[in-house]
């Protein structure tokens, strides 16, 4: 098997260059509702950039340096913006019934990202390294033990740090790339009011 040929054929089969890097959009995309997906994506970019800076200088420097405090706050507030945007995003997509015409993959993939982002957020709060986070980790571990997931030790700071900065971050990045690929491949769903009218 030739991997490059396989990739070439798969990309060519599913996406043109205009799909991948569109220069035009349907008129109905000129609506404020479409801003929420972009806002989610932008806040995620800020989360990743500030998170990489936080992780770069070790697990606690953000508690005792002014640059660390600032970066930590940027990371925290980007997460707040992310959750507000993603909630508005999927609410808008729900009222547009954006899963229509085979877009169920984007819809299911979106819920997967959302579910993983909850675990990512929880693991983030456990990295505060204070009494509050220790209390939460201690209380939360019983729920995981009850689910048979006791191998995930939420009381171990290093495990939680790795889960947060490697495991969940990687899953979210991969699923977001898939999300955007599906959107580019399928194009934005048509408004409900116009459905079927063009064919008559
Ligand atoms: C990290 C989280 C997410 C990011 C970065 C993201 C980003 C985007 C972007 C940029 C678009 C294209 C622009 C737009 O239509 O607004 C889009 C479309 C879409 N998203 Fe998301 N999204 C996320 C989570 C979700 C969730 C949780 C759902 C629902 C459960 C969802 C469902 C959809 C659907 C169905 C579309 C296609 C809309 C259409 O065809 O018009 N997304 N997303």
Segments where pLDDT lies below 50 for 5+ residues?
A: none
Total domain units: 2
Which ligands appear in the coordinates?
A: protoporphyrin IX containing FE
Largest sheet features: none
How large a portion of the residues is in β-strands, by DSSP E? under 5%
Q: Treating each run of at least 4 consecutive H or I residues as one helix, how many helices?
A: 7
Order of helices and strands: HHHHHHH
* Radius of gyration, whole Å: 20 Å
Mean pLDDT: 91
**Secondary structure: number of strands:** 0
Shape descriptor? globular
Distance between the termini: 47 Å
Helix content: 55-70%
Provide the structure class.
Answer: mainly alpha
Describe the structure.
The chain is mostly helical. It has two domains: 32-96; 104-188, no CATH class. Helices cover 68% and strands 0% of the residues. The protein has helices at 3-14, 17-20, 35-56, 66-95, 104-125, 131-146, 157-186. α3 (35-56) runs antiparallel to α4 and α5 packs antiparallel against α7. The chain starts with a helix and ends in a 14-residue tail after the last helix. The mean pLDDT is 91. It binds protoporphyrin IX containing FE (HEM). Protoporphyrin IX containing FE binds at residues 34, 36-38, 40-41, 44, 86, 89-90, 93, 98-99, 103, 106-107, 110-111, 113-114, 176, 179, 183, 188-189. Residues 34, 36-38, 40-41, 44, 86, 89-90, 93, 98-99, 103, 106-107, 110-111, 113-114, 176, 179, 183, 188-189 line the site of protoporphyrin IX containing FE.
